[in-house]
Amino acid sequence: MQPLLLLALGMILSFGPDTTLPTLPAQTEWPACAAGPEPAASAICLNQSALEMERRGDLAGASRMLEQARRLWTRDPAPPEVLRATILTNLGETLEELGRWRESRQCFEDAMSIYQTALGRSDVHTASAMVRLATMEMMLGNTPRAEELLDAALPVERNAMPGSARELAAALSFTAMFTLQRGEAAAAEELAQEGIAASGSESKESPEYAASLTTLAGVYIVEHDLTRATPLLNRAIDILERRLGTDHPRLAPVLMDRAMIYQGEKKTSLAETDGERAVAILCRESGPDSISAIWAKTRLSGIYLDEGKTTEAEAILPGAVERQRRFYDKPNWRVAASIGELGRLRAAEARTDEADTLYRESLAMFESVAPNNPEAARTMRRYAELLKSQRGSKREIRRLMARANSILTTGNTLLAR
Questions:
Q1: What is the pLDDT of residues 8-56, one digit of tens each?
Q2: pLDDT tens digits, residue range 384-411?
Q3: Could you tell me the residue range of the domain that residue 289 belongs to?
Q4: What is the mean pLDDT of residues 96-123?
Q5: Is residue 265 part of a domain?
Q6: Strand, helix or coil for residue 294
Q7: Which of 47, 54, 44 is nearest to 18 (CA)?
Q8: Most buried among 41, 78, 150, 262, by the most CB within 10 A?
Q9: Where are the alpha helices (DSSP H) in 57-164?
Q10: Which of 84-88, 119-123, 219-223, 393-397 comes out lowest in average pLDDT?
Q11: Alpha carbons 408 and 315: distance in angstroms, whole number
Q12: DSSP assignment, residue 16?
């Protein structure tokens, strides 16, 4: 099997399973939704309208509605603070899906602070906000803080079962991805299975259950077990299409995961279809320059390169890499992976000096932020191939291949043949 299955891991870790919840369960009984001058009732109405927009896939409309609700806290009397935290959590989730990650992180930070003050650090609401904040910290490259937040949140959510089933499933999915990125596939599989059990305890037809299935599929992809991964993704796509519609944003990452499997199996036509569909969904919903759409475009360009379609890859990949360079304010493994893909494109175009520079930049960034990431191994192998074609240093080629093989066998993961 080609090492292209490594690409699937990148998609899984980039988008991850969708962890959006319809709303956080409230300990306080809020009054029934009714339009009117009273700020709390107005906030509830706006929140419910936003959630309905999100279910239809109108994330931009949902974010505007929640922004309007957030402004109600400047009124006198202000609505209760715990209600404010719920609004902030839902707004943060919407902004996350729109690719506005820094704004999303601030919403989750504020929500966590409110919950902690009002309900305590050991409350499930606080823990749920911690998990969402950890997601954004990880996506923005703040790995140590993400790990710290997860370590604090998971025990709280486990202790709150069965009432915290959806929150726990979301937390386990993200923790599984985090663990998978470190190359610990066996531990990630256990977490993913626990997440499926948690979300399935409420419903095996919900979007949350589909998200849990996607996480486990990601683990199987990394373990090179496509016979178990593909049916899980097909089931998740079926649930999401039936429950949310065929063009809902939550479909995009799952479609791209399946595209990566097709790519590894050399089913390039099917891979293109799923990849282009995922890109179209994200571009329409969050804009062609959103960071989620840009990452999907990077992956689609990899499919094009496998087919020898350098013109199509050239049309999207250089711009995608530049957009990611500008977006992240510190070195990030996603940027490193994208730079490596651009090196691959330049090598295919026989622009070997540029390819050499890009590969070395990619590997230096990986070494600084994620030295054991499987994406780094993929880049090492491709750089070794370039050096071999240019009659480069045999010692360096051997070093790169040995290091790549060491990464790919860490934690009993079988990522490439």
A1: 333 333 333 333 333 333 333 334 444 455 788 888 888 888 888 887 7
A2: 999 999 999 999 999 999 999 988 775 3
A3: 3-20+39-330
A4: 90
A5: yes
A6: helix
A7: 54
A8: 150
A9: 59-70, 81-97, 101-119, 124-139, 143-159
A10: 219-223
A11: 31
A12: -
Cα–Cα distance for residue pair 230/225, rounded to 1 Å: 9
How many angstroms separate the CA atoms of 336 and 369, rounded?
Answer: 9
Report the C-alpha gap between 13 and 200 in whole angstroms.
Answer: 22
- Say which CATH number the domain at 285 has: 1.25.40.10
- Are 87 and 69 in contact by the 8 Å Cβ rule? The answer is yes
Rounded Cα distance, 319 and 365, in Å: 19
Question: Is the distance from CB of 304 to CB of 315 less than 8 angstroms?
Answer: no
How buried is 398 (Cβ within 10 angstroms: 0-12 exposed, 13-18 middle, 19+ buried)? exposed
Spatial separation of the C-alpha atoms in residues 252 and 58, rounded to whole Å: 14
Predicted model pTM: 0.72
The answer to whether 258 touches 234, Cβ cutoff 8 Å, is yes
Q: List, in order, residues 6 or more apart from 66 with CB less than 8 Å away.
A: 46, 47, 50, 87, 90, 91, 94
Q: Is residue 338 part of a domain?
A: no
Q: How far apart are CA 60 and CA 303, in angstroms?
A: 29
In percent, how much of the chain has pLDDT > 90?
50
Q: Is 402 exposed, middle or buried (0-12, 13-18, 19+ CB in 10 A)?
A: exposed
Q: How much is the pLDDT for 37?
A: 57
Q: Where are the alpha helices (H) located in 182-287, listed in sequence order? A: 185-200, 207-222, 226-244, 252-264, 268-286
User: Is 383 inside any structural domain?
Assistant: no
Helix (H) or strand (E) holding 350: none
What values do phi and psi take at 142, rounded to 5?
Answer: -95, 70
Residue 392: inside a domain, yes or no? no
> Is 327 in a helix, a strand, or coil?
helix
Report how far Cα 352 is from the mean position of its chain's Cα atoms: 32
Tens digit of pLDDT for each residue in 330-380?
Answer: 788 889 999 999 999 999 999 999 999 999 999 999 999 888 888 899 999
- Tokens 């799923």 — which residue? 274
Domain count, the chain: 1
